[in-house]
């Protein structure tokens, strides 16, 4: 019943991830202690469960047996298809207890919660600024490196973020 209600009373002491079944927590803990007996022969990655190894093997074989009924896109795992379907349904089952914002993936809620807790584990080595997401730190680092990965298709001017392109594009298109 916990699976259907979303109740997850079993929490990992290391990373605070929660599970509906104690057996899933037990398996998860193995990832922290390095107990991963199932090894991929192609890339040497290791897994705590044989099921995860079998799903992983589809990366190497290209097999995508789980198909979206809406857009026909294929996925290697059923959980990937379930996550994908939320694009079509706009379902956001993961709700913030503080501000009630909804998310389609639990990891996005976990990241969001750092806003409320003030947790910023990703630190810039050059200026000591801190970020709640590694992605934000990576984008910030472009300020220090001068990397301008995003180019205007019209004038070829470089920009640090994709969002920075919108202003020159509006000049080029008279918007």
UniProtKB/TrEMBL annotation:
Molecular function as annotated in GO: DNA-binding transcription factor activity, RNA polymerase II-specific; RNA polymerase II cis-regulatory region sequence-specific DNA binding; zinc ion binding
Gene3D superfamilies according to UniProt: Classic Zinc Finger (3.30.160.60)
GO cellular component, one term: nucleus
Cellular location(s): Nucleus
Residues that span the membrane, as ranges: none
Predominant location: nucleus
A Gene Ontology BP annotation from the UniProt entry: regulation of cell differentiation
Keywords: DNA-binding, Metal-binding, Nucleus, Repeat, Transcription, Transcription regulation, Zinc, Zinc-finger
Ranges for domain C2H2-type: 10-37, 38-65, 66-93, 94-121, 122-149, 150-175
Family named by the database record: Belongs to the krueppel C2H2-type zinc-finger protein family.
Protein name: C2H2-type domain-containing protein
């Amino acid at each position: 019943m916990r699976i259907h209600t979303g109740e997850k009373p079993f929490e990992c002491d290391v990373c605070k991830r929660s599970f509906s079944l104690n057996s899933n927590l037990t398996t998860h803990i193995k990832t922290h202690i390095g107990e991963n007996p199932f090894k991929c022969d192609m890339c040497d990655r290791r897994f705590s469960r044989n099921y995860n190894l079998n799903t992983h093997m589809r990366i190497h074989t290209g097999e995508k047996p789980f198909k979206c009924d809406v857009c026909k896109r294929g996925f290697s795992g059923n959980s990937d298809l379930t996550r994908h379907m939320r694009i079509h349904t706009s379902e956001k089952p993961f709700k913030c207890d503080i501000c009630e914002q909804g998310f389609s993936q639990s990891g996005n809620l976990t990241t969001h919660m750092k806003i409320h807790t003030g947790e910023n584990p990703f630190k810039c080595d050059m200026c000591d600024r801190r970020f709640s997401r590694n992605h934000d730190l990576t984008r910030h680092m472009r300020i220090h490196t001068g990397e301008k990965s995003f180019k205007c298709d019209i004038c070829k001017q470089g920009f640090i973020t994709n969002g920075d392109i919108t202003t020159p594009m509006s000049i080029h298109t008279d918007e």
